[in-house]
Amino acid sequence: MGVEIERKFLVVDDSWRAGTTGSLLCQGYISTDPERIVRVRIEGGAACLTIKSKSTGISCGEWEYAIPLQDARALLDEVCQRPLIEKQRYRIARDGVVWEVDEFFGDNAGLVVAEVELNAEDQIFVRPSWLGEEVSHDRRYANASLIKNPYKNW
Amino acid sequence: MGVEIERKFLVVDDSWRAGTTGSLLCQGYISTDPERIVRVRIEGGAACLTIKSKSTGISCGEWEYAIPLQDARALLDEVCQRPLIEKQRYRIARDGVVWEVDEFFGDNAGLVVAEVELNAEDQIFVRPSWLGEEVSHDRRYANASLIKNPYKNW
Questions:
Q1: Among 2.40.320.10, 1.20.1440.230, 3.30.930.10, 3.40.50.1390, what is the CATH number of B2-153?
Q2: Whether A80 and B1 lie within 8 Å, measured CB to CB
Q3: Which of A35, A51, A79 is opposite residue B75, by nearest beta carbon?
Q4: How high is the ipTM of this complex?
Q5: Across the interface, do A49 and B36 touch by the CB < 8 Å criterion?
Q6: Where in chain B are the domains?
Q7: Contact flag A35-B78 (C-beta cutoff 8 Å)
Q8: Angstrom distance (rounded) from CA B53 to CA B73
Q9: What is the pLDDT along chain A (154 residues), one digit of tens a residue?
């Protein structure tokens, strides 16, 4: 088990795209209960099953297990709630942290968020020029929420 | 992924106990949604995370992963719904099949069920003398149901 400490922001422009290449993520949820989220994710040729406990502030417990790709495909097809989430993830290393910028497709097209994983809740980091409003505490932006209330309906 | 084909019965007396020794199981549920059950189980020194898809008749899809014992303890303590299920499981090999007799504790004390896992839905098997009424299709006997509506409330 690890503790995931993460802050999430909107982006104000497209300047983060310069020189980045992303990878496609497909993920689905077996449980969207905020106290016990269960996610299946495929990225590239690898797959994982992740359990997240109730978040307190910007931290939550996280247990992640690699699973066979064919299991993940079956779980996404047969078990996960609908719809699935598809997004392109761009990783941008900058000033000692790695920003993950997610560009959503499907019913969440138009939504772009930037996340940074921290080692402590009070860790100081440099804000890139393209970083916008913080949405860490807005549950609407949780991926498990986006399958019930997609961005196109906001 | 496997397909689990299982039939479940009550028992009519205690004669199944002769010569058996059981092992203690502790399990909890992250999801009790009948279409996507997620279970954490500790038996002896081993632990597993199991996902079950919607059952059709007596069959359901099952994906099971061994996980570290300390992860399972944390998931049972911090993530699983309350209450947990504790039961003694007895395995009885008889006439080519293995009967698993579960004797429940806590709020389900007094409940004893016998399950047999089959290779096909129409597999013929010999009914032991202690086997009672079949309850395969009665959702109340599903362990994921017993945490919401325990036997003591029936």
A1: 2.40.320.10
A2: no
A3: A51
A4: 0.92
A5: no
A6: 2-153
A7: no
A8: 24
A9: 789 999 999 999 999 999 898 999 999 999 999 999 999 999 999 999 999 999 888 899 999 999 999 999 999 999 999 999 999 999 999 999 999 999 999 999 999 999 999 999 999 999 999 999 999 999 999 999 999 999 999 9
Enumerate chain A positions whose Cβ falls within 8 A of a Cβ in B: 1, 30-31, 33, 35-36, 38, 49, 51, 53, 61, 63, 65, 67, 70-71, 74-75, 78-81
Contacts A–B by Cβ distance under 8 A: 58
CA-closest candidate to residue B114, choices B136, B95, B96: B136
Q: Are A5 and A130 in contact (CB under 8 A)?
A: no
What is the spatial distance between Cα A62 and Cα A26, in angstroms, rounded to a whole number?
A: 19
The Cα–Cα gap between A56 and A64 comes to 19
Helix, strand or coil for residue A7? strand
